[in-house]
Please model this.
Amino acid sequence: MSGSPVAAYPVEKQGLERMKTLVICSGGLDSVTLAHKVAAEAELTRLISFDYGQRHKKELDYARRCAERLGVPHNIIDIANVGALLSGSALTDDVDVPDGHYEEETMKVTVVPNRNAIMLAIAFGAAAAEKADAVAAAVHGGDHFIYPDCRPTFIDSFEEMQRHALDGYASVKLYTPFVHLPKSDIAAEGSRLKVPFEETWSCYKGYEHHCGRCGTCVERREAFHVAQVEDPTVYQDPDYWLEAVEKAKGA
Model:
């Protein structure tokens, strides 16, 4: 079983204990776990989700359910017109979502350029307006290979930029406790927090059930396995992840 380094990044170590914190929540395993973590360890003010024209828009319903479960407001910000300008991604355009492991080069077609920067800028504005102390985002170590706006250097630079942008008006921290951790540790933390994993959505294809073949399904299935946490997810192809992981190891 993967040890849970989450304990090495407690809220109080980042100065967020009991601070008012807004969470960006997609409805996926990572952000729903983060919402539960913040609710347990700080003061969760609201969840913010984004409709950027993603084909797996059903994830937003899972974010709504999370907000209802935790008893906080939920805002869905419509930036679909902005998303239409960020063309070329398999998440928003008529481009096939590739099967396989996240570490494969083909997964770069799932990049939506500057997506996190845009969402974070909006979230920081909302946090400043409601006098919250922090914005929490669920970027994690498994995203670093593909997504530049999930890497620690981006996170540090963005927080510094926001310090200047809000200078004299508000002081808002960026809380990213998973940024150095693999997804398996998020699954372990979610289990500790008793997150209802069946109430999360990861699949990029947006079918009735998780496809089991896209990068995020493979990563999700692998994370539960490594963490030795029961996976309640219904996959159309529940065993494909084994093939994808072996292929990635041999690459």
